[in-house]
Design brief:
The chain is an alpha+beta fold. It is built from 19 helices and 13 strands. The protein has a six-stranded mixed β-sheet. Strands 1-3-2 form a three-stranded mixed β-sheet, with helices on one face. Strand 6 and strand 7 form a beta hairpin. It is globular and about 65 Å long.
Protein backbone atom coordinates (compact mmCIF):
# COMPACT_ATOMS: atom_id res chain seq x y z
CA UNK A 1 0.00 0.00 0.00
CA UNK A 2 2.91 2.34 0.72
CA UNK A 3 4.01 2.17 -2.90
CA UNK A 4 0.90 3.99 -4.12
CA UNK A 5 -0.59 7.19 -2.72
CA UNK A 6 -4.31 6.89 -2.14
CA UNK A 7 -6.35 10.08 -1.79
CA UNK A 8 -9.96 9.59 -0.69
CA UNK A 9 -11.19 12.92 0.66
CA UNK A 10 -14.64 12.77 -0.94
CA UNK A 11 -15.16 9.19 0.25
CA UNK A 12 -14.14 10.09 3.80
CA UNK A 13 -16.52 13.06 3.87
CA UNK A 14 -19.35 10.87 2.58
CA UNK A 15 -18.56 8.18 5.17
CA UNK A 16 -18.53 10.74 7.99
CA UNK A 17 -21.82 12.24 6.78
CA UNK A 18 -23.39 8.78 6.51
CA UNK A 19 -22.53 8.00 10.14
CA UNK A 20 -23.32 11.55 11.34
CA UNK A 21 -19.85 12.08 12.81
CA UNK A 22 -17.86 15.26 13.31
CA UNK A 23 -14.23 15.37 12.23
CA UNK A 24 -13.21 15.06 15.90
CA UNK A 25 -15.44 12.01 16.40
CA UNK A 26 -14.05 10.34 13.28
CA UNK A 27 -10.53 11.15 14.44
CA UNK A 28 -11.23 9.50 17.78
CA UNK A 29 -12.52 6.32 16.11
CA UNK A 30 -9.45 6.17 13.87
CA UNK A 31 -7.05 7.10 16.69
CA UNK A 32 -5.64 10.08 14.82
CA UNK A 33 -5.86 13.85 15.30
CA UNK A 34 -8.76 15.99 14.07
CA UNK A 35 -6.34 18.13 12.04
CA UNK A 36 -5.12 14.96 10.29
CA UNK A 37 -8.73 14.06 9.39
CA UNK A 38 -9.15 17.56 7.97
CA UNK A 39 -6.03 17.11 5.82
CA UNK A 40 -7.24 13.71 4.62
CA UNK A 41 -10.67 15.06 3.67
CA UNK A 42 -9.13 17.96 1.73
CA UNK A 43 -6.73 15.56 -0.02
CA UNK A 44 -3.70 17.34 1.38
CA UNK A 45 -2.39 14.01 2.63
CA UNK A 46 -2.89 10.45 1.34
CA UNK A 47 -4.31 7.58 3.35
CA UNK A 48 -1.70 5.50 5.13
CA UNK A 49 -1.89 1.74 5.48
CA UNK A 50 -2.76 2.05 9.19
CA UNK A 51 -5.62 4.49 8.50
CA UNK A 52 -7.00 2.25 5.74
CA UNK A 53 -6.94 -0.75 8.08
CA UNK A 54 -8.68 1.31 10.78
CA UNK A 55 -11.36 2.34 8.30
CA UNK A 56 -11.82 -1.26 7.16
CA UNK A 57 -12.15 -2.56 10.74
CA UNK A 58 -14.18 0.33 12.16
CA UNK A 59 -16.64 0.77 9.31
CA UNK A 60 -16.61 -2.65 7.62
CA UNK A 61 -15.15 -1.17 4.43
CA UNK A 62 -13.51 -3.12 1.64
CA UNK A 63 -9.83 -2.21 1.31
CA UNK A 64 -9.99 -2.81 -2.45
CA UNK A 65 -12.77 -0.23 -2.61
CA UNK A 66 -10.51 2.35 -0.99
CA UNK A 67 -7.66 1.43 -3.34
CA UNK A 68 -9.87 1.59 -6.44
CA UNK A 69 -9.94 4.94 -8.17
CA UNK A 70 -13.65 5.61 -8.40
CA UNK A 71 -13.11 8.90 -10.21
CA UNK A 72 -12.24 7.23 -13.54
CA UNK A 73 -15.79 7.61 -14.89
CA UNK A 74 -15.92 11.32 -14.06
CA UNK A 75 -12.46 11.94 -15.52
CA UNK A 76 -13.41 10.23 -18.79
CA UNK A 77 -16.69 12.16 -19.03
CA UNK A 78 -15.03 15.49 -18.21
CA UNK A 79 -12.27 14.88 -20.72
CA UNK A 80 -14.80 14.17 -23.45
CA UNK A 81 -16.89 17.25 -22.66
CA UNK A 82 -13.91 19.60 -22.38
CA UNK A 83 -12.66 18.52 -25.80
CA UNK A 84 -15.37 20.75 -27.26
CA UNK A 85 -13.84 23.92 -28.80
CA UNK A 86 -16.36 25.99 -26.83
CA UNK A 87 -13.95 25.70 -23.91
CA UNK A 88 -11.11 27.22 -25.93
CA UNK A 89 -7.52 26.03 -26.07
CA UNK A 90 -6.85 26.09 -22.32
CA UNK A 91 -8.13 22.56 -21.72
CA UNK A 92 -7.23 21.22 -18.25
CA UNK A 93 -4.65 18.46 -18.27
CA UNK A 94 -5.33 14.96 -16.98
CA UNK A 95 -3.99 15.71 -13.49
CA UNK A 96 -6.24 18.75 -13.13
CA UNK A 97 -9.26 16.71 -14.22
CA UNK A 98 -8.29 14.03 -11.71
CA UNK A 99 -8.11 16.63 -8.95
CA UNK A 100 -11.59 17.97 -9.74
CA UNK A 101 -13.13 14.50 -10.00
CA UNK A 102 -11.55 13.41 -6.73
CA UNK A 103 -12.05 16.55 -4.63
CA UNK A 104 -15.32 17.89 -6.02
CA UNK A 105 -17.28 15.06 -7.69
CA UNK A 106 -20.64 16.82 -7.26
CA UNK A 107 -19.29 19.92 -8.98
CA UNK A 108 -17.93 17.75 -11.81
CA UNK A 109 -21.34 16.13 -12.34
CA UNK A 110 -23.04 19.54 -12.27
CA UNK A 111 -20.63 20.76 -14.95
CA UNK A 112 -21.40 17.71 -17.11
CA UNK A 113 -25.14 18.34 -16.79
CA UNK A 114 -24.62 21.97 -17.76
CA UNK A 115 -22.60 20.98 -20.82
CA UNK A 116 -25.23 18.42 -21.82
CA UNK A 117 -27.89 21.12 -21.59
CA UNK A 118 -25.74 23.43 -23.71
CA UNK A 119 -25.35 20.77 -26.41
CA UNK A 120 -29.05 20.02 -26.51
CA UNK A 121 -29.93 23.68 -26.79
CA UNK A 122 -27.47 24.13 -29.64
CA UNK A 123 -28.87 21.11 -31.46
CA UNK A 124 -32.39 22.43 -31.13
CA UNK A 125 -31.36 25.87 -32.33
CA UNK A 126 -29.53 24.38 -35.31
CA UNK A 127 -32.80 22.78 -36.41
CA UNK A 128 -34.72 26.01 -35.73
CA UNK A 129 -36.87 23.89 -33.45
CA UNK A 130 -36.26 25.88 -30.29
CA UNK A 131 -36.99 29.15 -32.07
CA UNK A 132 -40.34 27.82 -33.29
CA UNK A 133 -41.53 25.99 -30.19
CA UNK A 134 -40.05 28.25 -27.50
CA UNK A 135 -39.74 25.07 -25.43
CA UNK A 136 -38.20 26.06 -22.06
CA UNK A 137 -37.30 22.43 -21.36
CA UNK A 138 -35.24 21.94 -24.52
CA UNK A 139 -31.87 22.12 -22.79
CA UNK A 140 -32.65 19.88 -19.83
CA UNK A 141 -31.18 16.44 -19.32
CA UNK A 142 -33.75 13.85 -20.41
CA UNK A 143 -35.25 11.42 -17.95
CA UNK A 144 -33.47 8.48 -19.60
CA UNK A 145 -30.12 10.29 -19.39
CA UNK A 146 -30.68 11.10 -15.73
CA UNK A 147 -31.38 7.43 -14.95
CA UNK A 148 -28.42 6.33 -17.07
CA UNK A 149 -26.15 8.49 -14.92
CA UNK A 150 -27.71 7.10 -11.72
CA UNK A 151 -26.65 3.55 -12.62
CA UNK A 152 -23.41 4.75 -14.23
CA UNK A 153 -22.10 6.36 -11.05
CA UNK A 154 -23.35 3.52 -8.84
CA UNK A 155 -20.99 1.16 -10.76
CA UNK A 156 -24.17 -0.63 -11.90
CA UNK A 157 -24.30 -2.38 -8.51
CA UNK A 158 -27.18 -1.75 -6.06
CA UNK A 159 -26.15 -3.57 -2.89
CA UNK A 160 -29.40 -3.69 -0.80
CA UNK A 161 -31.46 -4.78 -3.81
CA UNK A 162 -28.87 -7.36 -4.81
CA UNK A 163 -28.82 -8.88 -1.32
CA UNK A 164 -32.62 -8.94 -1.11
CA UNK A 165 -32.75 -10.86 -4.39
CA UNK A 166 -30.10 -13.28 -3.17
CA UNK A 167 -32.10 -13.98 0.00
CA UNK A 168 -35.24 -14.74 -2.02
CA UNK A 169 -33.23 -16.96 -4.39
CA UNK A 170 -32.14 -19.04 -1.40
CA UNK A 171 -35.78 -19.35 -0.35
CA UNK A 172 -36.77 -20.56 -3.83
CA UNK A 173 -34.21 -23.34 -3.59
CA UNK A 174 -31.62 -24.91 -5.84
CA UNK A 175 -31.42 -24.32 -9.56
CA UNK A 176 -33.22 -26.72 -11.84
CA UNK A 177 -35.71 -26.98 -14.70
CA UNK A 178 -38.63 -26.51 -12.28
CA UNK A 179 -37.38 -23.21 -10.90
CA UNK A 180 -39.84 -21.24 -13.03
CA UNK A 181 -42.71 -23.23 -11.58
CA UNK A 182 -41.38 -22.67 -8.06
CA UNK A 183 -41.38 -18.92 -8.71
CA UNK A 184 -44.97 -19.12 -9.98
CA UNK A 185 -45.97 -21.10 -6.87
CA UNK A 186 -44.22 -18.54 -4.63
CA UNK A 187 -46.19 -15.71 -6.25
CA UNK A 188 -49.44 -17.55 -5.58
CA UNK A 189 -48.59 -18.49 -1.99
CA UNK A 190 -47.01 -15.26 -0.78
CA UNK A 191 -48.80 -12.61 -2.85
CA UNK A 192 -51.97 -14.31 -4.08
CA UNK A 193 -50.89 -13.68 -7.67
CA UNK A 194 -52.11 -16.09 -10.31
CA UNK A 195 -49.54 -16.38 -13.10
CA UNK A 196 -50.87 -17.64 -16.44
CA UNK A 197 -48.69 -18.48 -19.44
CA UNK A 198 -50.89 -17.36 -22.30
CA UNK A 199 -50.73 -17.05 -26.11
CA UNK A 200 -49.31 -13.76 -27.43
CA UNK A 201 -50.99 -10.71 -25.99
CA UNK A 202 -52.17 -7.73 -28.01
CA UNK A 203 -49.48 -5.85 -29.92
CA UNK A 204 -45.98 -6.34 -28.54
CA UNK A 205 -47.08 -6.76 -24.91
CA UNK A 206 -44.88 -9.18 -22.99
CA UNK A 207 -46.76 -9.27 -19.69
CA UNK A 208 -49.99 -7.78 -18.37
CA UNK A 209 -50.67 -7.46 -14.64
CA UNK A 210 -54.22 -6.95 -13.42
CA UNK A 211 -53.42 -5.51 -10.00
CA UNK A 212 -57.00 -5.52 -8.76
CA UNK A 213 -57.64 -9.19 -9.55
CA UNK A 214 -54.00 -10.29 -8.92
CA UNK A 215 -53.70 -11.86 -12.37
CA UNK A 216 -50.38 -11.82 -14.24
CA UNK A 217 -50.47 -12.86 -17.88
CA UNK A 218 -47.12 -13.83 -19.46
CA UNK A 219 -46.53 -14.52 -23.14
CA UNK A 220 -46.08 -18.28 -23.42
CA UNK A 221 -43.91 -17.94 -26.53
CA UNK A 222 -41.14 -16.25 -24.58
CA UNK A 223 -38.09 -18.29 -23.64
CA UNK A 224 -38.36 -19.71 -20.10
CA UNK A 225 -35.48 -17.46 -19.05
CA UNK A 226 -37.43 -14.38 -20.17
CA UNK A 227 -40.63 -15.67 -18.53
CA UNK A 228 -38.76 -16.08 -15.23
CA UNK A 229 -37.25 -12.60 -15.58
CA UNK A 230 -40.56 -10.89 -16.34
CA UNK A 231 -42.37 -12.59 -13.46
CA UNK A 232 -39.51 -11.52 -11.17
CA UNK A 233 -39.87 -7.92 -12.38
CA UNK A 234 -43.51 -7.84 -11.27
CA UNK A 235 -42.62 -9.55 -8.00
CA UNK A 236 -39.92 -6.96 -7.29
CA UNK A 237 -42.39 -4.12 -7.61
CA UNK A 238 -44.63 -5.70 -4.98
CA UNK A 239 -42.22 -7.35 -2.58
CA UNK A 240 -39.52 -4.66 -2.58
CA UNK A 241 -41.79 -1.61 -2.71
CA UNK A 242 -40.33 -0.06 0.47
CA UNK A 243 -36.71 -0.58 -0.55
CA UNK A 244 -37.41 0.71 -4.05
CA UNK A 245 -38.97 3.83 -2.56
CA UNK A 246 -35.93 4.45 -0.38
CA UNK A 247 -33.54 4.07 -3.31
CA UNK A 248 -35.60 6.37 -5.51
CA UNK A 249 -35.94 9.00 -2.77
CA UNK A 250 -32.19 8.92 -2.22
CA UNK A 251 -31.52 9.51 -5.92
CA UNK A 252 -33.50 12.80 -5.90
CA UNK A 253 -34.60 12.58 -9.53
CA UNK A 254 -35.72 15.89 -11.03
CA UNK A 255 -38.83 14.56 -12.77
CA UNK A 256 -41.50 11.96 -12.15
CA UNK A 257 -40.63 10.43 -15.53
CA UNK A 258 -37.04 9.82 -14.42
CA UNK A 259 -38.28 8.28 -11.18
CA UNK A 260 -40.61 5.94 -13.09
CA UNK A 261 -37.85 4.90 -15.50
CA UNK A 262 -35.45 4.31 -12.62
CA UNK A 263 -38.06 2.21 -10.85
CA UNK A 264 -38.31 0.04 -13.95
CA UNK A 265 -34.52 -0.25 -14.08
CA UNK A 266 -34.35 -1.23 -10.41
CA UNK A 267 -37.03 -3.92 -10.77
CA UNK A 268 -35.12 -5.25 -13.77
CA UNK A 269 -31.97 -5.26 -11.65
CA UNK A 270 -33.75 -7.28 -8.94
CA UNK A 271 -35.02 -9.78 -11.53
CA UNK A 272 -31.51 -10.37 -12.89
CA UNK A 273 -30.10 -10.75 -9.39
CA UNK A 274 -32.85 -13.23 -8.49
CA UNK A 275 -32.19 -15.24 -11.63
CA UNK A 276 -28.44 -15.24 -10.99
CA UNK A 277 -27.88 -14.65 -7.23
CA UNK A 278 -24.55 -13.04 -6.47
CA UNK A 279 -22.72 -15.67 -4.41
CA UNK A 280 -23.77 -18.70 -6.45
CA UNK A 281 -23.24 -16.88 -9.73
CA UNK A 282 -19.76 -15.64 -8.82
CA UNK A 283 -18.75 -19.11 -7.65
CA UNK A 284 -19.98 -20.66 -10.91
CA UNK A 285 -18.35 -17.91 -12.99
CA UNK A 286 -14.98 -18.58 -11.39
CA UNK A 287 -15.40 -22.35 -11.72
CA UNK A 288 -16.31 -22.13 -15.42
CA UNK A 289 -13.79 -19.36 -16.16
CA UNK A 290 -16.52 -16.89 -17.11
CA UNK A 291 -17.80 -18.99 -20.01
CA UNK A 292 -21.05 -17.13 -20.73
CA UNK A 293 -22.64 -20.02 -22.59
CA UNK A 294 -22.01 -22.43 -19.69
CA UNK A 295 -23.34 -19.87 -17.22
CA UNK A 296 -26.45 -19.43 -19.37
CA UNK A 297 -27.13 -23.17 -19.24
CA UNK A 298 -26.52 -23.35 -15.48
CA UNK A 299 -28.82 -20.47 -14.56
CA UNK A 300 -31.40 -20.76 -17.31
CA UNK A 301 -30.49 -17.33 -18.67
CA UNK A 302 -29.82 -15.80 -22.08
CA UNK A 303 -26.34 -14.63 -23.07
CA UNK A 304 -27.52 -11.03 -22.76
CA UNK A 305 -28.76 -11.65 -19.23
CA UNK A 306 -25.50 -13.38 -18.26
CA UNK A 307 -23.33 -10.64 -19.75
CA UNK A 308 -25.36 -7.91 -18.09
CA UNK A 309 -25.07 -9.69 -14.75
CA UNK A 310 -21.30 -10.04 -15.13
CA UNK A 311 -21.03 -6.25 -15.42
CA UNK A 312 -22.63 -5.88 -11.96
CA UNK A 313 -20.28 -8.14 -9.97
CA UNK A 314 -18.83 -5.32 -7.87
CA UNK A 315 -19.87 -6.28 -4.33
CA UNK A 316 -17.27 -5.11 -1.79
CA UNK A 317 -14.97 -7.96 -0.70
CA UNK A 318 -16.52 -10.26 -3.34
CA UNK A 319 -15.66 -8.67 -6.67
CA UNK A 320 -15.57 -10.67 -9.86
CA UNK A 321 -13.65 -9.86 -13.01
CA UNK A 322 -14.52 -6.23 -13.85
CA UNK A 323 -16.33 -6.26 -17.20
CA UNK A 324 -17.85 -3.71 -19.51
CA UNK A 325 -21.09 -4.61 -21.28
CA UNK A 326 -22.94 -2.91 -24.12
CA UNK A 327 -25.87 -3.58 -26.42
CA UNK A 328 -25.86 -2.03 -29.89
CA UNK A 329 -28.73 -1.84 -32.36
CA UNK A 330 -28.47 -2.24 -36.13
CA UNK A 331 -27.89 1.51 -36.57
CA UNK A 332 -24.85 1.38 -34.29
CA UNK A 333 -26.56 3.13 -31.38
CA UNK A 334 -25.56 1.94 -27.91
CA UNK A 335 -28.84 1.14 -26.16
CA UNK A 336 -27.30 -0.34 -23.00
CA UNK A 337 -23.90 0.45 -21.52
CA UNK A 338 -22.28 -0.50 -18.25
CA UNK A 339 -18.60 -0.53 -17.36
CA UNK A 340 -16.66 -1.66 -14.32
CA UNK A 341 -13.41 -1.04 -16.25
CA UNK A 342 -11.43 2.04 -17.24
CA UNK A 343 -13.16 1.87 -20.66
CA UNK A 344 -15.99 4.39 -20.61
CA UNK A 345 -18.45 4.61 -23.47
CA UNK A 346 -18.98 7.91 -25.24
CA UNK A 347 -21.74 10.10 -23.82
CA UNK A 348 -21.98 12.47 -26.77
CA UNK A 349 -21.30 10.38 -29.88
CA UNK A 350 -21.29 6.94 -31.48
CA UNK A 351 -18.97 4.04 -30.79
CA UNK A 352 -15.65 3.43 -32.55
CA UNK A 353 -16.24 1.72 -35.94
CA UNK A 354 -13.15 -0.47 -35.41
CA UNK A 355 -14.73 -2.14 -32.38
CA UNK A 356 -15.64 -5.78 -33.07
CA UNK A 357 -19.23 -5.33 -31.87
CA UNK A 358 -20.09 -3.84 -35.28
CA UNK A 359 -18.93 -7.03 -37.01
CA UNK A 360 -21.03 -9.23 -34.75
CA UNK A 361 -24.14 -8.79 -36.95
CA UNK A 362 -22.29 -10.80 -39.62
CA UNK A 363 -21.45 -13.63 -37.23
CA UNK A 364 -25.04 -14.90 -36.72
CA UNK A 365 -24.63 -15.69 -33.04
CA UNK A 366 -20.98 -16.73 -33.11
CA UNK A 367 -18.87 -15.24 -30.29
CA UNK A 368 -15.99 -13.34 -31.87
CA UNK A 369 -12.90 -12.18 -30.00
CA UNK A 370 -10.82 -9.04 -30.36
CA UNK A 371 -7.72 -7.82 -28.58
CA UNK A 372 -7.93 -4.04 -28.56
CA UNK A 373 -5.94 -1.07 -27.30
CA UNK A 374 -7.39 2.37 -26.58
CA UNK A 375 -5.41 5.60 -27.06
CA UNK A 376 -4.63 5.77 -23.33
CA UNK A 377 -2.62 2.53 -23.66
CA UNK A 378 -5.14 0.29 -21.87
CA UNK A 379 -5.61 -3.12 -23.47
CA UNK A 380 -8.78 -5.19 -23.50
CA UNK A 381 -10.14 -8.60 -24.35
CA UNK A 382 -13.40 -7.88 -26.20
CA UNK A 383 -16.14 -10.41 -27.01
CA UNK A 384 -19.05 -9.73 -29.35
CA UNK A 385 -22.05 -11.65 -30.67
CA UNK A 386 -25.48 -10.90 -32.10
CA UNK A 387 -29.01 -12.22 -31.72
CA UNK A 388 -32.48 -11.82 -33.18
CA UNK A 389 -35.57 -11.38 -31.06
CA UNK A 390 -38.77 -12.29 -32.90
CA UNK A 391 -42.36 -11.84 -31.83
CA UNK A 392 -45.37 -13.24 -33.65
CA UNK A 393 -45.30 -15.18 -36.91
CA UNK A 394 -44.33 -14.17 -40.42
CA UNK A 395 -45.73 -10.67 -39.97
CA UNK A 396 -44.23 -10.27 -36.51
CA UNK A 397 -41.47 -7.85 -35.66
CA UNK A 398 -37.78 -8.78 -35.51
CA UNK A 399 -35.29 -6.91 -33.36
CA UNK A 400 -31.57 -7.39 -34.02
CA UNK A 401 -28.90 -6.53 -31.48
CA UNK A 402 -25.18 -6.99 -31.12
CA UNK A 403 -23.60 -7.36 -27.69
CA UNK A 404 -20.16 -6.56 -26.33
CA UNK A 405 -18.52 -7.92 -23.21
CA UNK A 406 -14.92 -7.30 -22.26
CA UNK A 407 -12.30 -6.88 -19.57
CA UNK A 408 -8.80 -5.50 -19.25
CA UNK A 409 -6.27 -7.94 -20.68
CA UNK A 410 -4.67 -8.35 -17.24
CA UNK A 411 -7.84 -10.23 -16.20
CA UNK A 412 -8.11 -12.24 -19.42
CA UNK A 413 -6.21 -15.23 -18.01
CA UNK A 414 -9.09 -15.76 -15.56
CA UNK A 415 -11.47 -16.35 -18.47
CA UNK A 416 -11.83 -19.20 -20.94
CA UNK A 417 -11.58 -16.64 -23.74
CA UNK A 418 -8.13 -15.40 -22.76
CA UNK A 419 -6.33 -18.56 -21.67
CA UNK A 420 -4.18 -18.53 -24.84
CA UNK A 421 -3.49 -14.79 -24.87
CA UNK A 422 0.10 -13.68 -24.47
CA UNK A 423 -0.23 -9.96 -23.64
CA UNK A 424 3.42 -9.35 -24.53
CA UNK A 425 3.47 -10.92 -28.03
CA UNK A 426 -0.19 -10.54 -29.04
CA UNK A 427 -1.26 -7.96 -31.61
CA UNK A 428 -3.84 -5.45 -30.40
CA UNK A 429 -6.24 -3.58 -32.69
CA UNK A 430 -6.19 0.19 -32.16
CA UNK A 431 -9.68 1.37 -31.17
CA UNK A 432 -11.03 4.54 -29.61
CA UNK A 433 -14.07 5.65 -27.66
CA UNK A 434 -15.59 7.87 -30.35
CA UNK A 435 -14.19 9.82 -33.28
CA UNK A 436 -14.92 13.20 -31.72
CA UNK A 437 -12.43 12.63 -28.89
CA UNK A 438 -10.10 9.98 -30.37
CA UNK A 439 -6.48 11.12 -30.52
CA UNK A 440 -5.37 8.75 -33.28
CA UNK A 441 -4.14 10.68 -36.31
CA UNK A 442 -4.12 7.98 -39.00
CA UNK A 443 -7.36 6.03 -38.56
CA UNK A 444 -8.90 5.26 -42.01
CA UNK A 445 -12.37 4.83 -40.44
CA UNK A 446 -12.52 8.30 -38.89
CA UNK A 447 -15.93 9.92 -39.46
CA UNK A 448 -15.28 13.37 -37.97
CA UNK A 449 -12.13 15.16 -36.81
CA UNK A 450 -11.37 15.27 -33.09
CA UNK A 451 -12.87 18.31 -31.40
CA UNK A 452 -9.68 19.31 -29.61
CA UNK A 453 -7.38 19.25 -32.68
CA UNK A 454 -6.84 21.65 -35.55
CA UNK A 455 -7.21 20.27 -39.10
CA UNK A 456 -5.92 21.27 -42.50
CA UNK A 457 -7.21 20.31 -45.95
CA UNK A 458 -4.41 19.84 -48.54
CA UNK A 459 -5.27 21.38 -51.90
CA UNK A 460 -3.14 19.08 -54.05
CA UNK A 461 -3.23 15.72 -52.25
CA UNK A 462 -6.06 13.34 -51.45
CA UNK A 463 -6.15 10.48 -48.95
CA UNK A 464 -8.86 8.29 -47.48
CA UNK A 465 -9.63 10.91 -44.84
CA UNK A 466 -9.90 14.29 -46.63
CA UNK A 467 -8.09 16.32 -43.97
CA UNK A 468 -4.96 16.20 -41.87
CA UNK A 469 -5.07 16.45 -38.09
CA UNK A 470 -2.66 18.92 -36.57
Amino acid sequence: MAARKVFAGARLRALRSQHKLTQSELASRLDISASYVNQLESNQRPLTASVMLALADGFNLDLSELMTDASDRLVADLREALADPVFGEAVPNLQELKTVATNAPDMARAMLQLYESYRKTNERLAGVDAALTRDPQSGMQTAYEEVRDFFHYADNYIDPLDRAAEALAAELGEFGPDRLHRLIAYCAEMHNIRVTLTPPLAGDTITQFDRANRDLLVNSRLDPSTQFFQIAVTLAGLEQATLLGQLLDGASFKTSEARDIARMGLTNYFAGALQMPYGAFLKAAEAHRYDIEELGHLFGASLEQVAHRLSTMQRPRERGVPFFFARVDAAGTITKRHSATALQFARFGGACPLWNVHRAFEGRGEIIRQLAETPDGNRYLCLAWSSEKRSGGYHGTTRRYAYALGCEVSHAVRTVYGEDVDPVRAAFDPIGISCRICERRTCPQRSVPPLAAAISVPADRRSIVPYEIG
